UniProtKB/TrEMBL annotation, chain A:
UniProt biased composition (Low complexity): 144-155
Name this polypeptide is given: Actin-related protein 2/3 complex subunit 5
Family label: Belongs to the ARPC5 family.
Region (Disordered): 137-173
Domain of life of the organism encoding this protein: Eukaryota
Gene Ontology CC terms, in alphabetical order: Arp2/3 protein complex
Function description: Functions as component of the Arp2/3 complex which is involved in regulation of actin polymerization and together with an activating nucleation-promoting factor (NPF) mediates the formation of branched actin networks. Arp2/3 complex plays a critical role in the control of cell morphogenesis via the modulation of cell polarity development.
Automatic annotation (TrEMBL), chain B:
Origin species: Lasiosphaeria ovina
An example molecular function term from Gene Ontology annotations: actin filament binding
GO biological process, one term: Arp2/3 complex-mediated actin nucleation
Localization of this protein: Cytoplasm, Cytoskeleton, Actin patch
Name assigned to this protein: Actin-related protein 2/3 complex subunit
Keywords assigned: Actin-binding, Cytoplasm, Cytoskeleton, Repeat, WD repeat
Residue stretches in coiled coil: none
Length: 204, 378
């Protein structure tokens, strides 16, 4: 028997290799309870999110964009079902898209200067990053039908790769809105704001 | 405000620095050695090197009265030495005793098998605390009959690496910051070494490992620095979420009177010191020191300690046409923007009081990754 064959046989029976030994060790980082890294968070249901969305839309229709933005940033969905989180993200993006570019900086400065303003902009930054994740790489994940609409190209280069599905127009638009907001938020709240998005365990 | 005094020692990071009480000797943690500098004229000259660690030295502290130097390093217990009882000791931490023949190392029985990250003498100088990656703090004290430093472990409820420690003026309470985002206050009371502390806002009865307080920021960054106010009745900590938090406890088993967090627009702070009860100086990744002012009713960032428009840095070069074209040719741009406008050219790692009078700090020192030691006026 050649060495190669011996080796292969040995590897095939090595089921123990797939055991996650980290999980068996109490001190391991995978057993670290990350819920100890944030204060207790209330659970938000989808009904509450829907109610808030309606209020926010009402404010938007009434022309109070700042109130609408504050409204969604003051009640982020930290704990809840994915659907609730997703719905709230859509509300935030809707509000962001409805605000004119020239109004962004003055509005952010007003929010930042008001009590609780730093927290609001930190929350906004979290939604910006989440929005970017969903509109770019996560497009396939949030929208499982999309890949089937694409021509399957298992090998080689696809010109469509960066912009899956027919929704590329709208996601591109959403992304440019998010990017310009990102720039403005960093101008007002500084780099500290980005750092806090990374350290914070209260994820939106 | 007088200009800061800048000493550029070398082109290596300074992990930690400490001055002797007479401010004539300066200990620097550089790579795997502790370097001792002495002041000659207006400059610091290398006088001695303390070699005993085999891994990167993470922290160094000189006890003001006894002159003993304690240093600690990364590298888990390497059994390299036995004391006269044949017990294997590790070299994570060493105490250097001053003697006429130079410094002689005394070994410390730390009993940790991860890196030692931070060390500080207690104000009484009978104990020191070593933070470690082993999720514990070793509180060390000298055992006369065995001629070594032994340790007791503060373990619960620390769940991750201890990055920093700070002593309360009473030498019993110890604050610690950890990568589990919590700042905690412990009792490190050792029978026979400490005298019973006066009851205070942190607690009345304080047996070893009493947890007198445990604080967490909403945005939960790693804690980089902790410090008690001069009275010991307030605690400040700086975390990786670019914030500093000040805690005013009200008494044992009661919620604190106030917990004030200031989230800044800046990069995170690595070190902070109190200047009286109403001012904090903090510095870190922004390479400059900032002043915070406030009290029980709130704290604000009041500005930088860097004097803007300081002559010198980067302006010494003549602005001739020849030079301009030479810069464009060499670098593709006219302005040389490789230097920061701050005194430190890289992250500030440690701040320490340098000259104090009546509870307030008149001068303090900073050390940085750029190999500079700077003496600042507050």
């Amino acid at each position: 028997m050649s060495i190669i064959q011996q080796h292969t046989q040995a590897t095939l029976s090595d089921a123990w290799r797939t055991i996650n030994i980290d999980a068996l060790q109490e001190d391991s980082s995978v057993n670290f309870d990350t819920s100890t890294l944030h204060p207790a968070l209330p659970e938000t249901s989808e009904a509450e999110v829907r109610q808030l969305t309606n209020q926010v839309r009402q404010l938007l229709r009434g022309g109070d964009a700042e109130g609408a933005l504050r409204g969604c940033l003051e009640s982020p969905v930290y704990r809840g079902r994915d659907e609730a989180k997703e719905a709230h993200l859509q509300t935030v993006i809707e509000v962001l898209q409805s605000i004119k570019a020239s109004d962004m900086t003055p509005m952010l400065q007003r929010i930042y200067a008001s009590p609780g303003g730093t927290e609001c902009l930190d929350v906004l930054m979290k939604y910006l990053y989440k929005g970017m994740a969903v509109t770019s790489g996560g497009a396939g994940k949030s929208n499982p039908q999309t890949p089937t609409r694409m021509t399957p190209q298992q090998t080689g280069f696809s010109q469509m790769s960066g912009r899956p599905g027919g929704s590329s127009e709208s996601t591109g638009g959403a992304m440019s809105v998010l990017l310009s907001w990102h720039e403005k938020v960093v101008d007002v709240a500084g780099l500290g704001c980005i750092g806090r998005c990374m350290t914070d365990w209260r994820k939106v | 405000m007088a200009a800061p005094e800048v000493h550029h020692l070398f082109h290596n990071p300074i992990a930690d620095h400490s001055f002797s009480a007479d401010r004539k000797t300066l200990a620097i943690a550089r790579d795997t050695t502790v370097e001792l500098y002495s002041k000659v004229g207006s400059a610091f000259k290398l006088k001695d090197e303390l070699k005993g660690h085999d891994k990167t030295v993470t922290s160094v502290d000189i006890a003001p009265n006894s002159g003993r130097i304690v240093s600690c390093s990364q590298g888990k217990s390497t059994p390299v030495a036995r004391n006269r009882h044949g017990v294997v000791l590790d070299r994570n931490a060493l105490v250097w005793e001053p003697s006429p023949q130079g410094y002689k190392p005394t070994l410390v029985l730390l009993r940790i098998n991860r890196a030692a990250t931070f060390v500080r003498w207690s104000p009484s100088e009978t104990k020191f605390a070593v933070g470690s990656g082993d999720r514990l703090i070793a509180v060390c004290y000298f055992e006369e009959e065995n001629d070594w430093w032994v340790s007791k472990h503060l373990k619960k409820p620390i769940r991750s690496t201890v990055t920093t420690v700070a002593w309360h003026p009473n030498s019993v309470l110890l604050a610690a910051g950890s990568t589990d985002a919590h700042a905690r206050v412990f009792s490190s009371f050792v029978k026979g070494v400490d005298s019973r502390p006066e009851p205070g806002v942190w607690g009345e009865r304080l047996p070893f490992n009493t947890v007198c307080g445990e604080y967490l920021n909403n945005s939960a960054g790693w804690v980089h620095a902790v410090a008690f106010s001069p009275s010991g009745d307030a605690l400040a900590f700086a975390a990786h979420d670019s914030s500093i938090t000040v805690v005013y406890p009200s008494g044992p088993d009661q919620p604190p009177k106030a917990v004030i967090s200031i989230n800044t627009q800046l990069l995170p702070f690595m070190s902070l010191i109190w200047n009286g009860e109403a001012e904090i100086v903090a510095a870190g990744y922004d390479c400059e020191a900032f002043r915070f002012k406030g009290g029980l009713n709130g704290w604000v960032l009041s500005g930088t300690l860097e004097s803007k428009g300081r002559p010198g840095l980067g302006e010494g070069r003549e602005e001739s046409a020849l030079n301009m074209f030479r810069q464009m040719d060499l670098k593709g741009k006219v302005k040389d923007d490789t230097q920061l406008k701050t005194v430190h050219q890289n992250t500030i790692t440690t701040l320490r009081p340098y000259e104090t009078s009546g509870g307030s700090v008149r001068k303090f020192t900073s050390s940085g990754v750029d190999g500079r030691i700077v003496i600042w006026h507050t």
